[in-house]
Amino acid sequence: MKVIVADDSRVMRQIVIRTLRQAGYDWWDIEEAEHGADALERVRATRPDFVLSDWNMPEMTGIELLRTMRAEGDETPFAFVTSEGSPQMREQAAAAGALFLIAKPFTADTFRETIDPFIA
Amino acid sequence: MSAVAGSLPTVDGEAIEAIAQDFFATMVDGEHGVLVPGYGEMAPLVDARFTWVDVHGETVTRVLVAVGRSTGDMLTRALLALPDDAPIGDADFADAAGEVVNVIGGNIKSLVHGGGALSLPQVADAAPDCGGAPLISETWFTWRGAPLTLTLWNLPEHAGSAGRP
To answer: Where is the Chemotaxis phosphatase CheX-like domain positioned along the sequence (chain B) (predicted)?
Structure first.
């Protein structure tokens, strides 16, 4: 399964990927994107199975990335891992078509419990 | 130790402590009790570095973390799961420090009345100019024996770094 992890922080991308491995998703083929615009290029080029994105990024935010993908007819499953998890942001994410939003800080258990129902 | 001013926008000092401790327990140390609130006189920060985000709401709340560079290097190694003697470059330090305040600030946003967009994190080797803005919360901790401060400042509306929608 090809997955794109988008976050403008290399440190946070490493933490997200390490936590995904700890959660049991060590079979995922993960590609990193440095911001939303970078992720969009990679989505267009490689057609991933899943996108896991930060929200607050330079160049293009995560919600702008999701809305652009959907506007282009791209229905790739998409979810957020972000430092903010307010009800308003969760509503925005769901309305734009995100599967879920994981708020930082997170654990491997958080990832497993949240992701497993969607990635059977 | 935490102090909250009374005549300014109020925030829950204990909740702020809990947010910082939860972040460190979950993503840095893997256990609670390593980042602990400090009491009494704080040891001075050595070769201090500053990192902050601005929460835009009815006013702008600046969330500012200050730490000594060597402590910040330890923090970077912990976040990247690097050995204790791994050299840390400025870029990795800035990235790690920025993420610390980004996550803490993102969670503090829920405590700030009218909390809206969050700015991208900034990192500097000098304290940012808060334009004489009042301090609304001050907390200091020790982490692995070294001091770390977490302060909130009430900036005027339209001040601070731009938030993202």
So the answer is: 53-125
